[in-house]
Amino acid sequence: MLFRLDLQRLFLLLTIAAVLLTFANSYYVTYQVQKQLLINSTLEANRVYAAKLAETTNNFLQNAQKQLAYSANILSTDFDNEALLESEAKRLYQQSSFFNSVSIINSKAIITTIFPLTIPVKGLLLPPETRQSFNTRKPIVADPFLSPSGSYLVSISHPIFTKNNEYLGYIAGTIYLHQNNVFFNLLGQHPYSDGSYIYVVDRHKEIIYHLHKNRIGDHVQNNPVLDAAINGQSGSARVVNSLGISMLAGYAHIERAGWGVVTQRPFDSVMAELDVQLTEVIWKSLPVLLMVLIAIWIANRFITAPLQALAHHASNMHDKDAEHNILSIKSWYFEVYELKRAILSGLAALNQKINQLNIDTNTDPLTGLYNRRSLDQKLEQWREMKQSFAVIALDIDHFKVINDLFGHDVGDEVLKQLSQIMKETCDKNAIIFRNGGEEFLILLPSTKQSVAQFFAEKLRIKIAQHEMPIEDNITVSLGISYWDSNSNDTIKITLKKADIALYQAKRQGRNCSIVHS
């Protein structure tokens, strides 16, 4: 005899299947959306970080070349004075801490002076392959080479000329690529905790900095990110590295040396983070799902036409009109009403979890302020709306000292209290962002620069008077700029102006606010 399901069991099985498929489809859609958001966020974060490293490295090289230029000017007046040469090499090495060694080469390509005197190379003739600085006779950052002492290094040099433009030689500071130095300490501040890492290549795509020092000196081929970086471009892309690992990379060009810097994170590491988030959503949604299934089991024996309509709409809960469609079903008896309410409750709970995921990706977990991703979204929105605004860049003075003296827990508490002060002081239209570390940005829509300066001073005084969990109160430095939607300046330039004003406030003694003129 042919077995046929009765109507009660048939509707029970169909309804349960519809609900389970709806939840599975919702999770899948959520996963795909969050996956793309995380990829975009990681690419942007790496791009910004690479650009910041490139800018910092440029500043480092600029300062180093200024030091060398100053010494070259001194030596040009009395180049034959051996005591002066030795004194200047020693002073430059000990004063700047930029270099692993300082050397002076005369017009015959002979090393006349070197400090420190750890390796006996004084008086040696430079090999032809190490004479880039000697032949160029211009301030340059030389390509990596093997020195007469056997060290693999990069040389930053400045030529020495007399007042009559007679070439006397050059002075050079070296960075040993297999030893610790200020340059490596600068790049080594990256935490590397999430599998990401940094590397730097010269204009010939030879690695000059890498987390694993055994990679220094390797040549990297067939990498479009490196090609773009050394050709003066910056950006982000998903690439496969030389080990066959898929990476989300940000890159930037170090203009002063012609180098490229890349920050990248394994794609699988980013996806693992997403898996953790979605697993948490699933576990927290299971009780709601169980409640829905129980409600279906209780109501199935009262299934009628309204329940069929309910099952139909439940299978399309991912549609934007799903909630409206379910509400429109006439629940003219109790069982249909309860089932409809349970499904709506489940949909609301799922949407709440999704909204919470969006909040988590847009806010700073320590302070509760908006993060850099939210800043980019808001600025893009205001740019399209042509919304003029003032921007205040705020930075805690000597925050590193607070962390060093009192520990990072106290430093975190200072950041949280500072964030609370800003929330209480700002009006409802102001938007506050934690830009990273102890740096914050405040956007004031439709606010003139003079008003923003008045507010910045008010905020600065309030912060200085607030008792923090340390021995002394903290102070902040603030930089102010204004973006007029009718001007030719970009928002990026406006933010840069705020940064410039902030650094000017730092240079003027801190605990003050400066408006970019």
Q: Could you state the order of secondary-structure elements as H and E?
A: HHEEHEEEEHEEHEEEHHHHHEHHEEHEHE
Q: Please, what is the oligomeric state?
A: single chain
Overall geometric form:
elongated
Main sheet makeup: 6 strands, antiparallel
Mean pLDDT: 84
First and last CA, distance = 92 Å
Structural class of the secondary structure composition? alpha+beta
Which stretches of 5+ consecutive residues score pLDDT under 50?
none
- Could you tell me the number of beta strands? 16
What Rg is obtained from the alpha carbons, in whole angstroms?
31 Å
Tell me the strand percentage band. 15-25%
The residue fraction in helices comes out at: 40-55%
- The total of helices stands at 14
Characterization of the model:
With 517 residues, the chain is α+β, with helices and mostly antiparallel strands. Helices cover 49% and strands 19% of the residues. It has helices spanning 7-75, 82-96, 132-136, 182-187, 224-230, 267-299, 305-314, 322-327, 334-362, 372-385, 399-406, 408-425, 449-465, 491-507; strands at 101-106, 111-115, 140-141, 145-146, 152-161, 167-176, 197-201, 207-210, 235-240, 246-254, 259-266, 389-396, 431-436, 439-445, 476-483, 513-515. A hairpin with a 2-residue loop joins β13 and β14 (439-445). The longest helix is centred in the first third of the chain and has 69 residues, at 7-75. The protein is elongated, with a radius of gyration of 31 Å. The model has no long low-confidence stretch (mean pLDDT 84).
